[in-house]
Design brief:
Strand order of the largest sheet: 3-2-1-4-5-6-7
CATH class of the largest domain: Alpha Beta
CATH architecture of the largest domain: 3-Layer(aba) Sandwich
Distance between the termini: 12 Å
Shape: globular
Strand content: 15-25%
Largest sheet: 7 strands, parallel
CATH topology of the largest domain: Rossmann fold
Number of domains: 2
Number of strands: 13
Radius of gyration: 20 Å
Order of helices and strands: EHEEHHEHEHEEEHEHEHEHEHEHHH
Structural class: alpha/beta
Length: 352
Amino acid sequence: MIKICLISIGPRGGMAHYISALANALSKRVKVVVIVANYLDKEYFNENIEIINIKTGRNKKEALLNSFNVFNFYKIWKIFKRLDCDITHFVSQHPWNFLVSFFIKQPIFYTSHDPKAHLGENFLIAFSYYLMNFQAKKIFVHSKIYLKKTFKEKFIQIPLGDCSFLTKWQKPEIKEENNILFFGRIEKYKGIEYLLKAFFLVNKENPESKLVIAGYGDLKSYSNLIKKNKNIEILNYFIPDSQIAELFQKAKLVVLPYTEATQSGVISIAYTFKKPVIATLTGGLPELVDHGKTGYLVEPKNSQALAEAIIKILKDDETRKKMGENGFEKMEKELSWDKIASKIIKEYKNIL
């Protein structure tokens, strides 16, 4: 049986979900070792997975500072020097990845969640994305649009998997409310400004609606828009898994007003809880949202179009619930981790 080493020393949140779900699916067919940040709970992983912890940061800033810690890097070098695996697979971005890769003798695979840097991202992190492309034998991406880019002979598309594990925190007593949910890190490219402007239009039509913005990041530049509306709830901190289920259960729909994107795990979470999604026509998002079936797609930076799509869903409960069901079915058919693991293992074996 082949032995795979999966490495994710980046920030917590979606990456923790990703590496644990992938590792658990792979471990049904191959031996798996994971190298992860020391704050990641071992309960995420199956018992047959070997776990090696590395001290890193809980967010981008801490991760960047730790990148220049010589003692930490020496520890990592020792770990990688004694690795005994057939394949080494980096499943998230981190400034250490490229440097560490020089100590690895095994073939390297790389999951590039963001093949290009987003607006506002640190240059060093963005540059590390590009450098890893040279080292990897194969690069997994989540959108068709990146199959025709540089290094195209290396690129293989795999979907972002489902987030069904989050339903273990679901509680039957939690009822749906008139909530419009934005969930995830607060970043410049997420289009918060356009969502806030759209919500003022929505609120005029539907005074009982509430916008919930849940995620950590800097909201200072939006403070004036937020203060103008009492129907906006801000949860500006890292949302623990135990609270994610409650947020999605209470939501009537989920909104991704991004001005640019590659993909998003938020859509998978929405489908897990049978919620329709309104997203923008950018990056790989149109591949995940079936317009008129699992939600609506609108032009980015268009608050009017965003508001109209939200109002349309809020007005029609029957269609809204049907979209949620369609999203759940799409997740089960297209985002299965077992199918993803099978495709990845095939690529491992092709290289070996």
